[in-house]
Amino acid sequence: MSKEITSRNEDYAQWYNDLVLKGGLADYSAVRGCMVIKPYGFALWEKMRDALDKMFKDTGHVNAYFPLFIPKSFLSREAAHVEGFAKECAVVTHYRLKNDPAGGGVVVDPEAKLEEELIVRPTSETIIWHTYKDWVQSYRDLPLLINQWANVVRWEMRTRLFLRTAEFLWQEGHTAHATSDEAVEETRRMLEVYASFAEDFMALPVIRGVKTASERFAGAEDTYCIEALMQDGKALQAGTSHFLGQNFAKAFDVKFLNKENQQEYVWATSWGVSTRLIGALVMAHSDDQGLVLPPKIAPLQVVIVPIYKGEESRQLIDSKAKEIHDQLKNLGVSVKYDNSDNSRPGWKFAEYEMKGVPVRVAIGARDLENNVVEVARRDTKEKKTVGLDGIAQYIDGLLTDIQHNLFKKAKEYRDQHITPADSWEEFEKLLDEKGGFIAAHWDGTAETEAVIKEKTKATIRCIPLDNKKENGQCILTGKPSVQRVLFARAY
RNA sequence: CGGGAGGUAGUUCAGCCCGGUAGAAUACGUGGUUUGGGACCACGGGGUCGCAGGUUCGAAUCCUGUCCUCCCGACCA
Stated in angstroms, how far is A310 CA from B41 C1'? Predict the structure, then answer.
């Protein structure tokens, strides 16, 4: 994102809405805080979903589906869990409407009150562990490696398009293991799946880390996360993987017989990423002209735009363009030849730029004479005249280039925005003037963390997994510390 | 739930202070001319002004109530 937008941080949401709404990605629906994902935006989600799903399957997981409604009592089985989610649950209390006796319209039928209210899942741990109880009896049933693609609802007080909508799409993996070590290993494995997906597919560099106790998932023993940096200097939690210990197994009485014929509680993990990733993608790579998509998840990788005058030249261009189209298709490139007569070339250029299509090929009468086309890349906006010989291979290579370049650019920005701070003044100054991650010493207490958050709105994003030990003094209290942690203001 | 702004055509908004036939741009439809960075001309379709009351000869405009949306905060993936 360009400097103008960075300096317009206050209006960031507005810019984002404009781009995304007008760009055909999404709309707010009539339902408070929910989103309509238009076809192009959904195609983007599908690309991400399919790539992730393949990675889950490659690591031995299978998909299943569990109910949307959860009996209220399930939620309260795990103390920390209910504490964490109770405040944001949508509740179903009745199952029928009737005609309003007082006039037109319908009212809730008071006769149809549910004996036990149902909550709309904010996450599925409870109903899944309730189900797992019947699925697990012996160590031979373990591990249980299941994922579900679903929608969940969290009645947040304030919503933000893609980053925090009331309803969102996600996947949630829920696994059961015979040993603690195995569950921890799974937790870390899935974190790495998320990290490599973010980096290899989304071109989004992430920091792999572990959350502090106060930022932990409700009911988890440990929460691992990938943290990304947006172009405005704010951090975004892009995915989480939780080691749940035996908390849910105990709450839902999920035991198995081990080899020694003894009853034991299973060890659990859960992990998820959501449509928030679409937001991450937009905010990590976009510029003032709209979306910039990494080729690996762009629904459309190449668009060919003809420029013609009159029917005769149109036919000539058509046949050449279709040749290029077919060559690209044979290479497995997602390509569209837009020869619609409804809009002019300039309009098409702007349109596909806004949609983030990585490569545009323009072909006109002038090009035909010289046996060339004009190839424009979205990431750098460079335009180049390229000969028709081997054009498909050239473009295919260009897509790889763009993918790498986007990651490189984002990583350079990210790395430049991890700044050490050794005094409180420096810490505050960096937050206000530079943004990004700030590596600072922390005394390890939740109290200090809370005070820092209160004073600066910055939270500890994570303790990086590869963090090096270093003695120092807490940025706030001056108490001894053994390592720096990453602070940032976050979405 | 606190503080602010707002609800008028598919969309973005003007009109409201100072009451008097519902407006613009854009989008849409038809016809034509165009096409190397969001074309132009002509004609055309489209809104019970969020909802409910009140004041008035007359309300988008004034008054009361109500619902909803957006932004800022508390809360959070």
Answer: 20
